[in-house]
Amino acid sequence: MILTIARKEFRSLFAVPSTWLLLGSLQFIFAWFFLARLDAFLQVQAQLAQIGNAPGATLSVAVPLFGTLAIILMMLVPAFTMRLLAEEKRNQTLVLLMASPVSASQIVLGKFVGLMLFLLLIVASCTMMVVSLAAGTQLDVGLLLSNALGVLLLASNYAALGLYISSLTSQPVVAAIASLAALFGLWLIEVSALDNDNALHLFTPTSHFQNFNIGLLNSTDLVYFLVFLITFLLLTIRRVNNSRIYG
Amino acid sequence: MSVAAPLTLSARNLIRRSGRHEIIRDISLELRHGEVLGLLGHNGAGKSTTMQMLAGALSPQSGQIIICGHDMICKPELAKAHIGFLPETPPLYREMRVDDFLLFAAKLHRVLPTQITHYLSETKRRCGLQNSGNKIIGTLSKGYQQRVGIAQAIIHQPEVIILDEPTVGLDPSQIRDIRALIRELGDTHSVILSTHLLSEVASICDRVEIIHHGRLIYSDSSEQMQQYGYQPGFIVTLLAPPTLAELQAIEGVQQVEPLSDTQFRILYAANTPPSTGSDPGSKLLELAAQHGWQAKQLVPLQARLEDVFMQITQDEEERV
C-alpha cells in the first residue's frame, strides 16, 4: 500500500513539465560546477603530485560537489514537499486517501518514499558524474559512498521536515516558504556557530553532514539523522490522523 | 427491497462537535442491501459531515458505525474496504490520466491484481468513460469529471456506496444518465446519496431521511413522504363561473379559493371516497354541464416535494 502511494507520487512529479525543466537545469549546474572543479584540479595536479599523500580527484572534485548539492537541496526540497499534503488538502483530494482502507502512517510513508525516490534520482545523477572520473583515475570509493549516503540522509531529513510543515497548512505556497525558512534557519544556526565545538552544531543537520562530507562515518551523526527523520515522520502521521478528528 | 435483506450499514448515535458547537447531534441510520437512501437537508444541515463520518474520512466524537459487520473505529481498514465514497468535490488528481487514476483508486481499495483490469473496464462501461481512458482528468469537462468521481467510488465494487450530491453541476442528459446508473447500483449495492434536488429523491430513492440542524427529523419511504400533509383537491378553470357560494355548496367541498376570475382552487375533505360519481370533482363537472359554467380544465392538486420538505422542516422548527 505504501508502494502504491509512493509510485503514484513519483509518477505525478513527472506529469508536470516543471519537474523535467528543474532536473535538466540542476544537471546543467552540477555539470558546470563539476567541470570547473575538475579544471582547477587538473591545473594544480602537477604540483600536488610532488607532495606525499596528496589529495586525489575524489577529494578535490566530489567533496565540494556534494557540498553544493547539500546547499541546493535545502532550497529544492521545500518546492517538492509543499505539494505532498498541502495541495491535496487544498484540492480536497486527501479525502480519497482518508476514506480508503489505508492508515495515516501508510499515507505519510507512501508520500515520503515517493519523494525520496525522486531525490535519490538527483543524488544518483550527481554521483554518476563523479564515477565517470574512474575512466581516468583511481577513485576513493569510500569517500564517495560516505558523501552519497550523507547527502541522502540529509535529503531525507529535509523531506521529513517539509512533509510535516506541508501537513500543517492547506496552502502549498505557505508550506514552501515555511519549510524554506525552517531549513534556512537551521543552516544559519550552523553558520553563526563559528568555533567547531560549539554546542549549537549538535542541532543542525548540515554540521552532521560535514562529517560525511569529509568521509568520517560517525555513529552520532547517523543517530542524529535517524532521530530527526523519525521524529518528523511521526509528527506528520499524528497530524494526518488528527485531521480525521478535527476536520 | 425486502426487510429481510442484510444490514450493510448501521450508524448509532453519531455526535460530532466543532468547538462547543454540535454539528451532528445524535444521528442514527440503517441501510440494507439493495436500498437507495436519500439524505435531504438545507445547506449546512450536516449532510456532508454525516457522509464523511460514514465514509471514515472524519471520526465522530461518539457513536458507532458498523459497515458489513466491521466496526469503523476499531477496524477502519476492514470497514472502509466495503465503502465507495464520492465527496462533494470529486477527489481527482488533475494531472493523472483517467485509467491511471482509476487503477490507483482500485489498488488503494485492495482490488486483487488478477481482477483489476476486469473491474476497470466494467466500471468505465457503467460510467460511460470507455473513450476517455487516456485523457488527462484536468482536461475533462465538469460532467465527465463527475463521472470519474463516481467511477472511483464504485471501481472496487463496494457493498455501500456513499455519494454526496452526485448530480450537482451536470447537464440534464447527464443527470438522467447518472440517475439511471445510481438506480442500477441500488439494485446490487446499498447507496446513500445527499441532494438538494427533490425530484431526484422521487425518482431514485427508496427511503428518505431529512437532516435539520444536525438532527434526523424525518424518516420514511419516498412515496410516504410525498403523502405528508397531502390535502386532496384540484384546480378548476371555469370560463363562465358561478358565485363562490355556489361552488362552496357542492357536497364534500371544504374550501374554495379563487385564483383568478376563472380559476379556483377547491379543497375537499380527505375522507371523501374517491370513487367516480360521488367525489366533488365529478359533481362539479356534472353541475358545470347542467348550468353552462364552461368547464375547461380540472387539475388534481399534487403535493410538490418542495412543499412537503418545507412543511416538514417548518413543523420541526415549530416543535422546537
Please provide a written account of the structure.
The complex is a heterodimer of chains A (247) and B (320). By secondary structure, chain A is mostly helical. Chain A has one domain (2-246). Chain A is 81% helix and 0% strand. Chain A has helices at 2-13, 17-50, 57-90, 94-98, 104-131, 141-168, 172-192, 205-213, 219-246. In chain A, helix 3 (57-90) runs antiparallel to helix 5 (104-131). Chain A is elongated. Chain B has 320 residues and is an alpha/beta fold. Chain B folds into two domains: 7-227, Rossmann fold (3-Layer(aba) Sandwich), CATH 3.40.50; 233-300, 2-Layer Sandwich (Alpha-Beta Plaits), CATH 3.30.70. In chain B, 35% of the residues lie in helices and 28% in strands. Chain B is built from eleven helices and 14 strands. Chain B has helices at 47-55, 76-80, 98-108, 116-127, 142-154, 172-188, 198-204, 222-227, 244-248, 280-291, 305-319, and strands at 7-18, 21-32, 36-40, 62-67, 70-71, 83-86, 160-164, 190-195, 207-212, 215-221, 233-238, 253-258, 263-268, 295-300. In chain B, the strands form three sheets. In chain B, strands 6-7-8-3-9-10 form a six-stranded mixed β-sheet, with helices on both faces. A four-stranded antiparallel β-sheet of chain B has the order 2-1-4-5. In chain B, strand 1 (7-18) and strand 2 (21-32) form a beta hairpin. In chain B, helix 3 (98-108) crosses helix 4 (116-127), helix 3 packs parallel to helix 5 (142-154) and helix 4 crosses helix 5 (142-154). The radius of gyration of chain B is 25 Å and the shape is elongated. The mean pLDDT of chain B is 84. At the A-B interface, helix 1 and helix 4 of A face helix 2 and helix 3 of B.
